[in-house]
Amino acid sequence: MQRRDVGFWQRLAGRIGGPVLELGCGTGRVSLPVARMVETVVGVDRSGEMLNVARRRLRRSRYGPRVKLVRGDIRALPFLDPAPFRVAMAPYGILQSLLRDRDLKKTLASVARVLERGATFGIDLVPELPEWGEYRRRVSLRGRRGARGGHLTLIESVGQDRARGITTFDQEFVERKGAERSSRRFSIAFRTLSLRQMRNRLERTGFDIEAVLGDYHGRAWGPRARAWIILARRR
Asked: Full-prediction pTM beyond 0.70?
């Protein structure tokens, strides 16, 4: 996973302050670095396996005590109303993993419920999904897992359902160590969303659009922007 977005979320949290909520926190890739900037970060994810990885990372970090991990569904955030979050983060297309529009609407309403009035909701969309070409079982990585680890191969496939605007990424990690072989498969799908679609849904849910950025350094959005970042304020 690329880390070029981490500094953006750190700066946003540092400017506004916490508590900060991350949707789909996974292994803590964003939550843990953001905890360097604020006292409280709450990460929500429905994958117990990924949260276990995050907990191991937190135990190794001096900032780990600032992060609280919660297993839950972002469509119905498990917090009492009202919750005191000043920032909500939706990094790297997490809202595009909601393949049905009703699930997106539920998520936006759930986020609005747990944010303070005037709080900021940052959303990072993946704009280039329609540009991905389809391919099957392409080897995209070969290497070793540490000095004594086995040989690791990453095999990827990409499929497009253009009628529904859905791009599916299938990954298989194959590890060989001596005569032993293990394999783990993952699949994730993203729905193509336009800025207009997201803006309309945010505004109907009680948000005002503050800015639309075209990169992680705060530059304004343009038609050729490689990142689509929306900053919205809770009414």
From this structure: yes
